[in-house]
Design a protein that fits this description.
2 domains, six-stranded mixed beta sheet, alpha/beta, Endonuclease, Chain A, 6 strands, 12% strand, 434 Repressor (Amino-terminal Domain), 12 helices, single chain
């Protein structure tokens, strides 16, 4: 069964998917013909045309050259990268759940895979107070479900947390439990937790967090978020690889796993003393 093209009015990415099928049909070409142009499978072409997968720079350039479009695909892809993608939240959720490896730099809070339920509740409660979340407990349940899905199958997690992200974000007991969670997760063979000390600033992460995914088939994707919850999901393989390189550069400046554990362990006294007051 042929998957329908998305509504081209939804986003520029949807337009690219729609236009790929339209132009293919105008050239009386089959999906097999396009697969040869893009050096991919027919199934991948079907995903491109349905919008389930985004065309990247390499694919757009190949289509522009084969069909002599004047660079239309490449030009519109550039505009798509600058705008807000309506399908981005669904793609991000899918990548978080399916990735076999995660590289996460978190600049301002403990990332989702490592959060305790009470820590998450505090963050989502702040969203409720700001009018962004209607039902805190429902949001907490969804976050814990996402966390369980991310960790299912024991994917490799490489996490770098900015030292400032460990500031007080709840009661002393909440923070003590969150510290213990970080120490516990860091003991797992497939999880690496490292702290980026304040002393290395400025660095390439001062403008926000980012998350790199390695998906089945070794395909890359990435996500760059910001303070108001509007982020960019990156499917372009060249751009996603650039984000991964950025992660490794900042990870090289972080404390080692042992140094990070020692720092977290030294936080015991301050949190525990406050919890008893």
């Amino acid at each position: 069964m042929v998957r329908p093209s998305p509504d081209p009015h939804e986003s520029i990415y949807a337009f690219l998917a729609y236009y790929l099928r339209f132009l293919r049909q105008q050239h009386n070409a089959t999906q097999s013909d396009v697969a040869k142009i893009l050096n991919c499978s027919i199934g991948q072409v079907s995903k491109y045309e349905s919008g389930d997968k985004q065309l990247a720079t390499k694919e757009c350039a190949a289509l522009d050259k084969e069909w002599n479009t004047g660079g239309v695909f490449t030009i519109w892809l550039g505009y798509a990268k600058l705008g807000i993608d309506a399908n981005a939240p669904a793609r991000l959720d899918r990548y978080q759940r399916r990735a076999i490896e995660h590289c996460i730099f978190s600049s301002n809070l403990v990332p989702i895979p490592l959060q305790t339920e009470d820590y998450a509740r505090g963050l989502l409660g702040a969203g409720h107070a700001a009018g962004l979340i209607e039902d805190v407990e429902a949001a907490v349940a969804l976050r814990m479900d996402l966390q369980a899905a991310i960790l299912d199958g024991r994917p490799n997690l490489w996490v770098v947390i900015d030292q400032i992200a460990l500031r007080q974000m709840g009661s002393s007991q909440v923070m003590a439990d969150q510290r213990d969670k970080l120490l516990e997760m860091g003991e797992l063979r497939h999880v690496s937790v490292r702290i980026l000390p304040l002393s290395v600033a400025p660095h390439t992460g001062v403008d926000g967090s980012y998350w790199c995914f390695t998906l089945p088939g070794r395909r890359l994707a990435a996500y760059s978020g910001n303070a108001i919850g509007i982020g960019r999901v990156i499917d372009d393989q060249t751009d996603a690889a650039d984000v991964a390189t950025r992660f490794h550069r900042i990870a090289a400046r972080a404390w080692s796993e042992d140094q990070s554990r020692e720092y977290l362990a030294r936080m015991d006294e301050s949190f525990d003393d406050l919890a008893q007051e």
